[in-house]
Design brief:
Number of strands: 3
Number of helices: 6
Shape: elongated
Strand order of the largest sheet: 2-1-3
Order of helices and strands: HEEHHHHEH
Largest sheet: 3 strands, antiparallel
Strand content: 5-15%
Structural class: mainly alpha
Helix content: 55-70%
Radius of gyration: 15 Å
Distance between the termini: 35 Å
């Protein structure tokens, strides 16, 4: 039995992978990656990326996780935008680096 794979599913999967990868790339220069700069926001973003990947998986996507995907995506997007506009105090004088733009 073939599973249906549409453009929306692919876009969610690519976005979730990019968000997860961005956590390991430098967000602020000088400063560091998301794991070094953020206190708990990094865990929320990692959780959102993992939930996004699970939501598009055929085995898990038909449940409540698939229905919650718009809320998960909007929350992750809002967190990233807030961190771009108002960075943490540790890196308040730093410039944005690749990881921040990749997460967006």
């Amino acid at each position: 039995m073939r599973e249906r794979f549409d453009a929306g599913t692919g876009l969610v999967a690519v976005g979730a992978v990019l968000l997860l990868v961005s956590l390991f790339i430098r967000w602020y220069d000088p400063g560091g990656d998301a794991w070094a700069v953020f206190e708990s926001v990094d865990l929320v973003l990692a959780g959102a990326a993992i939930c996004g990947l699970l939501a598009v998986a055929p085995r898990f996507g038909s449940g409540g996780l698939g229905r919650a995907l718009p809320v998960i995506s909007a929350t992750a997007f809002a967190i990233v935008v807030v961190q771009l506009i108002d960075p943490p105090p540790v890196v308040s004088d730093s410039d944005l680096a690749t990881g921040a733009w990749l997460a967006l």
